[in-house]
Amino acid sequence: MSAHTAHTELKFIGKLILEGELHCETGLHVGAGKGSLEIGGSDNPVVKDAFGRPYIPGSSLRGKIRSLLEQASGAAIPSELVYLSRRKGQEVRIHQSDRPDDEICLIFGRNAGRMERVVGEALESAQATPARLAVYDAPLDVDSITASMRENLDDELTEVKSENAIDRITSQANPRTLERVPAGARFHVRLVMDVLCDEDAPLFSRVVEGLRLLEDDALGGGGSRGSGRVRFAGLKLLWRPLAYYAGKGQEKQLAAGTDLGGLQAALNESNYSFIRDSQ
User: Fold this and answer.
1) What is the pLDDT averaged over residues 217-226?
2) CA-CA distance, 129 to 131, in Å (whole number)?
């Protein structure tokens, strides 16, 4: 847990900005929902922008990071989960507590009010906590889909993976198709974390931990069937203090052209002294 207490005062100090590339090691499927089904198209299309190009919604990446950190923190147990939605067949459960040092709630924010726990009495939270982490939509680097790759794709930028679900009694096949961005594609990712007090600094290390967990997990749908393996590369981390936004200070580059392991090493070496030096 963090060093935050109920008396920790929040005052904007600066922003940590992480940018880099997300590489698809296998095909990636981030679904657009059945409402996007086209005649002759895949049963499960990927989400696309207004120009028809696949992208990774920031909400998908942020939600996956949160889910993995909840599991790693032991916070994904029923007594630590609350319902965001109780719609039958579409229940959504997330971790939330009223503890001032709860790192998950500090990073991702929490709302005040009453929430039903999955197990136990309802959670009555008196104060809201601002989210520190923002994750932006990740656009596709169209140049990463090479001419040789396009020759084997089902569409200009995507492939269609055919799958079968087999009935265990009758052995009848139930075919389905999954649209995917192909292995080898790259997306540009951008994460920004607000630092609102000295105690916030180590929270960014947890975000990087979540990204490392993701590299050995899966993003999007079909992860247990081979889709969604990703890798982060070419990462650049910047620190922009409050003075930078007033035109009176300079940004500081903390890491460049590195992977997640190199990023963690740079943070450990700095011990976040750049934040203290900005005040």
Assistant:
1) 93
2) 6
